[in-house]
Write a structure and sequence with these properties.
The protein has 116 residues and is mostly beta strands. The chain is built from no helices and 5 strands. Strands 1-2-3-4-5 form a 5-stranded antiparallel beta sheet, with no helix packed on it.
């Protein structure tokens, strides 16, 4: 069965990033509401690595997984940028019918992050 694997890395130095900052939370459970305020960050940086592997299965199915590690920094404060996961995993299952050019997929994401 054919398979593929690859990885990539990135680094970005950003001027004047508009970012959302959590200012308060009310309620809990299904009634939880997060309130954000947009702010300008004069200088920020992001860098990360992503690794992915896919494999073709019988019956026009394929599956794959990827993981991304992301490091962010507000260069003004030295703190991490809010709302960006440190680690994010994605698992996929895809069905493709070549005669009808029909594709259906399902994915599951499991972020572990500094997100509030």
């Amino acid at each position: 069965m054919p398979s593929a694997a690859w990885s990539t890395s990135s680094r970005n130095d950003i001027d004047n990033l508009i970012d959302a900052r959590l200012i308060r939370t009310t309620g809990s459970g299904k009634n939880k509401i997060n309130y954000y305020q947009y702010q300008n960050i004069a200088e920020a940086s992001t860098q990360g690595i992503e690794a992915r592997a896919d494999i073709k299965l019988p019956w026009h199915l394929s599956t794959g997984a990827s993981v991304t590690w992301l490091d962010t920094e507000n260069k003004e404060t030295g703190e991490e940028l809010e709302g960006n996961p440190d680690v994010k995993d994605i698992f996929r299952l895809v069905y493709y019918h070549p005669d009808y050019k029909f594709r259906a997929s399902a994915a599951s994401t499991t972020p572990e992050s500094n997100m509030s």
